[in-house]
Amino acid sequence: MKLFLSVLAFMAFGLFSTAQSQNDYIELARDVLKMEKKAAIGDVMMLSESESGPFWTLYNEYQMALYNVHSEQVEVIKDYANNFDSMNDEKAEGMFKNYLSYQSGLTKLKKKYFKKFKKVVSPTKAALYFQAENKIEALINAELALEIPLLEAK
Question: Whole-angstrom Cα distance, residue 131 to residue 124?
């Protein structure tokens, strides 16, 4: 998880020279985070043998959908980094709307998949899974908040 956060922080400060190298490093960080996250979820869930197969199949499906939604967040961060020094009211408003769109998409996805998860594990285990997901997300967002500078009011 630290690698992912470090990459986003470097990107926000413009330390990568090209858009392609930014994207390469972001994808590497996302791959590392994906592996670390899956191991953590496995430790938390304590699935029975009968739950394991259906859960991990649905987990992988959800992660692919989540990847697409989180790509919106990455784009907002990249846009912010690219426009930080020349930010104006119009750009700030547009980025905030994109951020809200990302948040809305994330909420819709969670609602949709909670219904699916509680069909393959108990509602309590489905809630436990999303609680673990939310904790991981909160850790990432807290680290991003520390690394990404606030705008200066004009």
Answer: 10
